[in-house]
Amino acid sequence: MQTEQTLQRTKQCDDFANAIRREYEHHLKALVDIPSISADPAHKKDIKQVAETAAALIKKLGGTAEVLKTEGNPVVFGEFKSKSSKSHLPTLTVYNHLDVQPAEAGEWRTPPFSLTVEGDFYRGRGATDDKGPALAALYAAKFVNESEVPINI
Is the pTM above the cut of 0.90? Predict the structure, then answer.
């Protein structure tokens, strides 16, 4: 049996998700529209662009972020620090990727590198693997941080 507190938190989550849906779709489009194909050296600039876009979005949503250069593709390190005064807090690590596989345009009903929203369906390369889930995790981190849950993400 759910407690009143659990029901209240569920409603808060639902309200948050509904409130940010258009904003989420706007940011998902920005990510999906970048053809960040890591297997193709011709898309090196796109990989850099998607990393910079992600870092800027983390900052916009209240976290800190930096793009780390590597011998291969860049890595984005973002963080949402809890506002709690407790000295030792748990830390949740979320790992996602923003690169995608090549797409044959003829195999798609919609342009692969342009987000198409059809009701509750998102179509576009990376919309469900893994740009969309990465963005959902980012908004969850924002929600948890703003709700002052004592955890670092």
Answer: yes
Closest listed residue to residue 145, CA positions, set 89, 98, 97, 95: 89
Separation CA 89–CA 26 (nearest Å): 33
Structural domains present in the chain: 4-146 (3.40.630.10)
- pLDDT per residue over 7-58, tens digit each? 998 999 999 999 999 999 999 999 999 999 999 999 999 999 999 999 999 9
